[in-house]
Each structure stands twice: as C-alpha cells, then as structure tokens.
Amino acid sequence: MPGYNVPSYTTSNISIGPGVLYLASAGTTPTTDVGAVRGGELSITREKLDIDQGFPAQPIISYCTAEDVTLTVTAIEWNFEQLVKSLGAGAATATQLDFGGDVNFSEIAVKYVHRMAAGSTIEIDIWKANGSGELTTSFGDDVQEFPYAFAGLNSTTDWASATLDSDKTIFQMRRIN
User: Fold this and answer.
1) Within 10 A of 98 (CB to CB), how many other CB atoms are there?
2) Which residues contact 6 (CB under 8 A, 6 or more apart)?
3) Confidence band of 176 (pLDDT split at 50, 70, 90)
4) For residues 156, 160, 163 and 169, what is the CA-based torsion angle, rounded to 10 degrees?
5) Distance between CA 31 and CA 38 in Å, rounded?
6) Which of 2-16, 48-62, 101-115 has the lowest mean pLDDT?
7) DSSP assigned state of 25
8) Torsion angle, CA of 162/166/170/171, rounded to 10 degrees?
9) pLDDT tens-digit map of 66-89
10) Of 12 and 165, the one with more pLDDT
11) How many whole angstroms from its chain centre is CA 54?
12) What is the tens place of the pLDDT at every residue in 7-58?
C-alpha cells in the first residue's frame, strides 16, 4: 500500500547544491567566475497597492508599486577583485583592496548558473545591478564567508543590446535542458 498524502512529482525538477556566480561590467555578458561559493538565494519582492471601493470597502483591483530583485551568494574565497564589485565601490588588485570616499555605486552584470541533479541548468541573468555595499566576515576556526548581494536595476536592453519589453527589465531566469 502506498503512503498517504504523497503528491505527484517529477524527480528531474528536484535540485540541490550551490551554483556558479559570474560578474562583469554592466552591459556585457558576465564570464568572470567569482570562485568557490556555498550557496545562493534569489529574492523577488513586489509591493502591492490594493484599491478598495464600496461600503464595506472591498478590493476591486491591485497594482504593483515597486519591484525588487536581489541575488545573494555566500562566497568563501578571498578575492579582492570580486569583493569590490559586491561593495559597489573601491579599487582592487589581486593582492590589495582600497576602499572609502566614493558616493556612487558601480553598475555590474550578474549571472548565476545552477546545475540540477538531473543535468538541466537554471540560469539567472540580472541585466544591470548594484552591489549591496556591505561586507561582514568573521575570522575564526571555520571558513570565512563573504556575502555577495546584488540588487537588480531597471535596464532597457539585455547584454546583446536587444531592447527589453517593459515587463522584462530587471532579470531573466530560465531552465536549460
């Protein structure tokens, strides 16, 4: 007898593990791998405005008043040239990070590629983004971790300079079999 409350499922849709984070200058396809990461998290938030009418008031329509897309990846390699991109400012070489005094945030392109257990990949392309401007790490007995967080910005074109439709201006996520 089968178990109770077992839903139908497709095992090829189940996935586990981290992915690979690629970064580049805004307007170009990211190809620079940031190195070892422990995991990633994509957050999509839409702020909603409900319009009510009548007595008692009842909702008749809703509008989106703001959209936020953030990709956060936990990196574990000391890579100054990638850390500066997450900070959104500063100057870096392979051996030195200089930071402080810049009021602007640099714009970058972000790509995250996750290979699923069944062989497909999930790719997240953020056309234009800012780094979070935050870096916190602990020095101790465990591996140091660096949160790389990137907030998607509105873009009128993708990395191939193709015009984006008005409802596709922040990011694209696709599954490639």
Assistant:
1) 11
2) none
3) very high
4) -40
5) 19
6) 2-16
7) E
8) -70
9) 999 999 999 998 889 888 999 999
10) 165
11) 41
12) 988 888 888 888 999 999 999 999 999 989 988 899 999 999 999 999 999 9
With 0-12 / 13-18 / 19 or more C-beta atoms within 10 angstroms meaning exposed / middle / buried, residue 49 is: exposed
| Spatial separation of the C-alpha atoms in residues 65 and 48, rounded to whole Å | 6
Which residues are paired to 91 by β-bridges? 98
Amino acid at 39: G
CA dihedral sign of residues 96, 97, 99, 103: positive
Asked if residues 75 and 21 have their Cβ atoms less than 8 Å apart, the reply is yes
Q: What is the structure's pLDDT at 67?
A: 95
CA gap 122, 14 in Å, rounded:
12
Q: What are phi and psi of 38, to 5 degrees?
A: -95, -25
- How many separate helices (H) and strands (E) can be counted in the chain? 1, 10
Cα–Cα distance, 127 to 171 (Å, whole number): 6
Q: Which amino acid is at 103?
A: V
DSSP state of 92: E
Q: Quick one: how far is CA 71 from the chain centroid?
A: 2
pLDDT (0 to 100) of residue 163? 97
Which residues, 6 or more positions from 3, have their beta carbon under 8 angstroms from its beta carbon? none
